[in-house]
Every structure is written in C-alpha cells, then in structure tokens.
Amino acid sequence: MYFYSQATSYEEGVEEANYVLSSLGDYALSYPIVLDREDPMQESARTNNMTVEQHTQAALGFLETIEAAGKSAMIYTNQVYYALYLDLEQIYKFPVWIAQYANEPV
C-alpha cells in the first residue's frame, strides 16, 4: 500500500497511519506500507515552511505506528526531499525508495 502524506506533526502522522491500518483490516500484505513524503511545490501546501524536525516527526509518526502494528514500513521520496527535509539520523532505520524521474539519476 502507498500513502501520500501532508501531515505536519507526529500526531498527524499517527492519525494517517491508523487510517491506513483500519482501511487494511485483516488484509495480508506482501510488501511494506509506503509513506510518500515530497515537496508538493504549491504555494498553498500545508507543509510549506515546516522545519526539518517537523517533516521528520510527521514521517516518524506514520512509520513507527505502522511498524508498531506489526507491518513493514518504508518511505518513498526524491533525493532533494530526503537530503534537505528529513533528519537522516532519525529516519535511517526505515528503508527508502528514491524516486527517479529521468532515465538517469540526477
């Protein structure tokens, strides 16, 4: 399962994860539940002006809640967001799927 997030806090990340978990019910997954965190590049985005710590906590709220429920979790993002918007010392334990929009890495 893949979930795009615009959570702005740890608590909102938890709420989103609980929504995903309740939507799944008892359905058995073969792959991790994937959290998509990116810069939406819109002036009205609610995630604009968040600090690295706020971005990191929002992601951790989701990822830790999924893992606490006994499911695998990972994050999907692009290189810029991963490097500039997340505290890698806090998020490193979760697998990452880096987006590649071109034929070659940039």
Report on this structure.
The protein has 106 residues and is an alpha/beta fold. Helices cover 41% and strands 14% of the residues. The chain has 4 helices and 4 strands, in the order E-H-E-H-E-H-H-E. A 4-stranded parallel sheet has the order 1-2-3-4. Helix 2 links the parallel strand 2 and strand 3. The radius of gyration is 14 Å and the shape is globular.
Major sheet: 4 strands, parallel
Q: Please compute the radius of gyration using only Cα atoms.
A: 14 Å
Ends distance: 27 Å
- Neighbour order of strands in the largest sheet: 1-2-3-4
List low-confidence stretches. none
Spell the H/E element sequence. Answer: EHEHEHHE
**Which geometry do the CA atoms define?**
globular
Tell me the quaternary state: single chain
Please state the structural category.
alpha/beta
Instruction: Please tally the β strands and state the result.
Output: 4
How many helices?
4
Percent of residues in beta strands? 5-15%
The average pLDDT value, as a whole number, equals: 92
